[in-house]
Specification:
Layout lengths: L20 H23 L9 H4 L8 H22 L14 H11 L2 H14 L4 E8 L2 E8 L8 H4 L4 E7 L6 H4 L3 H8 L5 H11 L1
Antiparallel strand pairs: 1-2, 1-3
Helix pairs in contact: 1-3, 4-5
């Protein structure tokens, strides 16, 4: 089954002023769309074309070497962005604030406090050299923060991505995610992004793993 570009769960301008409408348009309708097109082209006619993208990610080593890099970059980009759109919501309308319930408790027990988690996550996102992602993952029953280059993600595993586990939250720190509004000020983008994090969706992601 071919991958399809998902419909955003909000309008292009819904995350303003933290993420501007033009960035959302280019990011979702151009960058993500290209990942979908390129992944489908690379997988067409192969046994892996029938796999959901989340099932393909841990099996990248099985993909023939002549297709593996293209699949890694583009199917990885499709998986990453499909999650990214879902874990954001308009500020005050599901976005921002702080987690509650089991997610809040697990963050506190894993990192000391929500504020300490935010600081560690922001540090991982800021220090990711070049393009990549920062992740909050469930691994061996615990929450961990890590980052990956390019369109790698933790589902690809430690050997490929250098970061393992099941992601429940991810932040895109490619320049195309923020450059129109923040230019080279990645820390400002990261600080603003907390205002649109959909903790309800992150909690659902956690419940799906535990």
């Amino acid at each position: 089954m071919a991958y399809a570009l998902p419909t955003l769960p909000y309008a292009l301008d819904a995350l303003q002023p933290f993420i501007d409408a033009k960035t959302m348009e280019i990011h979702s309708q151009k960058h993500h769309a290209a990942y979908v097109t390129n992944a489908n082209k690379a997988l067409e006619g192969t046994p892996w074309a029938a796999l959901p993208v989340e099932a393909l990610m841990p099996r990248l080593a099985e993909v023939p070497e002549d297709k593996r890099a293209v699949v890694r970059n583009n199917a990885g980009g499709h998986y990453n962005h499909s999650m990214f759109w879902q874990i954001m919501a308009p500020a005050g309308k599901g976005g921002g604030g702080a987690p509650t319930g089991a997610l809040a408790d697990l963050i506190a027990s894993s990192f000391g406090s929500f504020d300490q988690f935010k600081a560690q996550f922001a540090d991982a996102a800021t220090k990711r050299f070049g393009s990549g992602w920062a992740w909050l993952c469930m691994k061996n029953g615990k929450l961990e923060i890590c980052s990956t280059p390019n369109q790698d993600n933790p589902l690809m595993g430690q050997a490929i991505a250098g970061c393992g586990g099941t992601p429940i939250l991810g932040l895109d720190v490619w320049e195309h995610a923020y450059y129109l509004n923040y230019q080279n000020r990645r820390p400002d983008y990261i600080a603003a992004w907390w205002n649109v994090v959909n903790w309800g969706q992150v909690a659902k992601n956690l419940a799906g793993v535990r």
